[in-house]
Amino acid sequence: MVLEKExxxxxxxxxxxxxxxxxxxxxxxxxxxxxxxxxxNEFHIPITFSTQYTKGLGGLHPDITKFSNGCDVFEKxxxxxxxxxxxxxxxxxxxxxxxxxxIIFGIELHICVLQSAxxxxxxxxxxxxxxxxxxxxxxxxxxxxxxxxTKYNISIVTTEMVxxxxxxxxxxxxxxxxxxxxx
Length: 183
Hints:
Largest sheet: 6 strands, parallel
CATH topology: Rossmann fold
Number of helices: 9
Order of helices and strands: EHHEHHEHEHEHEHH
Structural class: alpha/beta
CATH class: Alpha Beta
Strand order of the largest sheet: 3-2-1-4-5-6
Radius of gyration: 15 Å
CATH superfamily: Isochorismatase-like
Strand content: 15-25%
């Protein structure tokens, strides 16, 4: 299924200060996450942010925080966002408004992102995981998570796939603006 900007919503999982510092390929994680968030803002695509145990892991990463104003931000205690009532209600409400394509990325791919994707898929959501905007401490954990997500028919996408599917056409002002983010 091709992503449609009118039908999309983002779930940004636990991109927090202390977690980012121990992630594999953290610069790529932050860069691609920001590209996705800025692009979603350009298209007025709703975004939900989650955090895990902020007392110990800190709040959202400072680069991410500046884009969270006006968005739903929830602290959770479950690893899966789908198990948190407030996050689940927020995502479900957006689906009811027509945003049926749930695009997930963040930290850690093999724990919170994986459990969230599988949980929302089990509830009947159309789920996509942006693999180059996710991370784990170990690359092996990421590889195993991708294999498992694929086994359960979660769509694996990249940042550029998402952006260009939203754009549909080149030569527009929006294309010119967003293509600068990808360079």
